[in-house]
Amino acid sequence: MIPRYTLPEMADLFADQSRYATWVEVEILATEAQVRLGHVPAEALADIRRAPVPLAARVAEFEKERDHEVLSFLAAYCENIPESSARWVHLGMTSYDLVDTSLGHTLARATDLLVAAGRRLRRALTGTALAHWDTVMVGRTHGVHAEPTTFGHKLGGYAFAVDRSLTRLAAARDAVAVGTISGSVGTYALIDPAVEAHVCRALGLGVEPVPSQVVARDRHAQLLQAVAALGACIEQIALELRLLQRTEVREVEEPRASAYQGSSAMPHKRNPTTSERLCGLARLLRGYATTALENVALWHERDLAHQSVERVILPDSLSVGHFQATKAAELVESLTVHPQRMRAHIDATDGLIYSSSVLAELLGEGTERERAYRSVQAAANRTIATGEHFATTLAQEGIDLPALGPERFLTHHDVLRSRLEKLRELDD
Known about the structure:
Fumarase C, Chain A, domain 2, 2 domains, 17 helices, 63% helix, EC 4.3.2.2, N6-(1,2-dicarboxyethyl)AMP AMP-lyase (fumarate-forming) activity
């Protein structure tokens, strides 16, 4: 996590001090359950509740000697608990009962932040799409002018892609929002399952059904796959906006502050840096997702090879994904659209984008398909070679160009709009 791509609310969740606060919460809840079971005296619970969350710096001091974060945390925490009560802290638990249950709670909250940013992006896309539903532009396939479409249609497709990503994130949140307090190798040999049930219920977590001592790492892999999928959807949006901002296209523009400077050498530059940044961050997310898959297979009931990896990929993936979704929403919300440029490009190829309609007209009149196709193609090739209007070269083939405009291609556009309006209702 670096500040440049981390928003404060996500940084706070993954800070060391926040982690230790969650660990304290788990320890208190576990002790509550032990008191209810009659295994711990009630006065010990009172002492444990009164103890403050240990400072991260103090835990770090202990860890220099112990080389074990959980034991160092417990040492720092118990410094402020009377010895007669401190001995009941962590009763029957193993380290990852504390670590993984707390992690599940943190990942659920972090995913909630990401989902909120994704919903904002979906809302921005549907709103802008409906505002530009009839803003006609040329559609492009393989980078080449194809047929007319609208800017709203383009953004509408992206809105549904983000919506699908939100569905995947919801499922992934359910997968990671679990805990386990089952003791060494997950057998509950020294701890009653009622402790686990109490802690997880209080934290809003499910329970790992058959723990091995740790929560299964395919859960985290699922989450990071979902984050990467949202990142790829945002990359598609950003890539399109980059392409539409090229000098020779200039159909949209990113928002820029009055003091904006695009180049240290060329004062005229207006670069699509926000869109480029969003594309770059998607590459990171795919890398994190791949690494998460490497963490699924652990030795026997557990090993520690995954821990160092998770300390990087879990906070980084959620931080980057949250930043990316938030900035993408801001970009779409404040995007400048140039309808006149879009309309101008409709006519840039001298009528060639209507070739499919001409072909359809000929086929409807009964012309054999191969003959019709070759005739229209020959006229198109002459337009490309000579710059003559398509109507002229068609006439040379004995074909009259029907009275066509881009609206001809939007016959069933209202059907698509109604689908988008239903999606927008999710955010109303």
